[in-house]
Amino acid sequence: MDGVTNLIGGKWLPSASGSTFESRNPADLSHIIGIYARSEAQDIEAAVAAAQNAYPDWRRTPPPERAAILFRMGQLLEKHKERLSILMVEEMGKVLVEARGDVQEAIDMAYYIAAFGRMPFGSVVPSERRDIYCMAQRVPVGVVGLITPWNFPIAIPSWKMFPALLAGNTIVFKPAEDTPQLAIEFVRLLVEAGIPTGVVNIVTGYGQEAGAALVESQGVTTISFTGSTATGRQIASRCGALLKRVSCEMGGKNGIVVLDDADIDLAVKGALWSAYGTSGQRCTAASRLIVHRDVHQKFRDALLSQVASFRVEAGTNPEAQMGPVINRAQLDRIHSYVELGQREGAKLLTGGKILSEGGFEKGCFYAPTLFDSMTPQMRIAQEEIFGPVTGIIEVSSFEEALAIANGTLYGLSLSLYTQDLSRAFRAIQELEAGIVYINLPTSGAEIQLPFGGVKQTGNGHREAGWMAMDYCTEWKSVYVNYSTSSDLVRAQIDVHPQKGHNT
Question: What is the homologous superfamily of the domain 254-438 according to CATH?
Fold first, then answer.
């Protein structure tokens, strides 16, 4: 039934108001994927209550048992990989090979996090006192609210949800309004994998309605958000006022540095993937190409020849190199930045237009766009565009290249192409980013390493890797006196009285 898309306490429900919204195929806006519950505060509170009710038993469930559910989830994602990938092409617009990669990332994350179910959850440390046992253990925080974007609609929910579940938390999940069907399919597989009633709840709707209510809910202890810096700043500020834990993964203005000794063919391939993969709709997309003047012309000409012949069409075609952008609003936003870049004085080499003829009439397609003569202070070199647009900034030295690479408010992903080991390691030290690549694109994170950025890209938390549970757990220190003596034993003051400690 249309609009019955909230899973709350094990039941699929419409929104309390009965309001709905549509999800449409960005390659063909006449194709309606489905109709979904447009939820508000009342729906969020019902989901939070269900998660609170499920929390005590889930918290007591042994971690290996929780891990077994995640392992089964990995198996189910493998089984349904192609179906989910095709749905992703239709609902979000990625080309098929990228959609398969998105699902594979969730498969990898399921197995990786499941393995932590039998790993240590803390540390035993020595005490300075006799017959005292000391340990620190990782404990869950309670109900975790997840707010996820549309550009990685299977992978990013897995990054957030699987560590939180393994740690013993329960979930209220508010997916992006552009990709609700993929989120629902993801949760259905979790239910099939055996997740208990109320442990995972999904509430569909808009950010300003359902998302804001999730942040405000008193029953939610922690928020994990991925999206724009502007929205993340609002969420972090509000969570600070409410004394909630908050993890924000936000924007990026990533760059590729191409030095005079770079393998130009390799650098061009990296630039193509970084700038135009997922139609530039990645937080790791490279919208700045910082190129040494000695190789500027060679790099520009080689890149331009590739971009000008890029194959843009619906991602269902296996030959497509780039699909549509997510919606008409984003299409207009991208075009406004291209027009701004031209007014600022950047030289448009190719692209720069909305594709509206020759089979593109029903969709949200933008031509892959390349600028030259971009300068570091132009707005198109400083602000996140989130579309298939990049530009070349010419530099005269390694030092200038590093300074320009670091010269934005963001710090997610930076890449450098060189064959000089000394300059590579200096760049690793000096580049201000959470992720640094040498002779690789700015996109290509693996799930066994931490993902996240510095400056206005993030607030210090990381996703994936061995610290994936940091955002959704607390540390509890435990002291056990197993002495048979009835004497009071105090720390520091009794052991080292000459120091005068009174802890």
Answer: Aldehyde Dehydrogenase; Chain A, domain 2 (3.40.309.10)
